[in-house]
Amino acid sequence: MAGWDWQFALIMPASLSMYAAVAAAIAGSLPRRSPERCQANVGAIIALALAMAAQICEHLISGGYLQKSAWIVVIVSATPPAVAAHVLHLTATARRHEPSRAPTEAKPEPPTVNVTRTNGPPWKPVLDKPIPVLQPPPQKAVSPALTPRPEAVTARVSPEPEKATESPQRPSADEVVRRLYDELGGKRPGTRHIRQALADADLPNSDGSCRQARLRVEQEEPELKELPPA
Known about the structure:
Elements: H1 6-9, H2 11-29, H3 35-62, H4 70-96, H5 170-183, H6 191-200, H7 207-220
């Protein structure tokens, strides 16, 4: 009645029947109270309602109670594509909710035999130990070369220690002590003689100064050390 060939007209009842069957099957495979299952149930109800409405409309047109119009042709022509689209949508939804495959069974390990020896520990199976990964040694950062200062002044240091500056009074003290050997008639002066002579010459006259002055004189003339004491 919609203007289709009778061979294509058979697609309408077939598509509605397939629509109802697929929607019911998918609804049964989805979890309860899920939005997808509710959508599949609605699709099954719509498929049954379309099938019933098509039968009723056909009988009304055949009985003369209903006139064939352009809206009926449009609805009939649009039904198969809409049914196919919704069926594909329900199929994709069902695939997303397929239960995951069971994990593959682990390969059984070969049995190990524990062989014992007399008066010895039991043998143990050889286990593969992981080889430790050696980390490369840390590299030290290279510090940039120091640029010399343009106005740096370097001083040359002598490896020999500097001699202490001799006191300007030493020659006078040595001369005073040397004269004592002659004044005492060729005798070696004692500390008291040297202290008195240095005091008269207004020179330092401590015991250490007296002994140091006599030591310097006798180092210059070692024979004076052999003289008898005064």
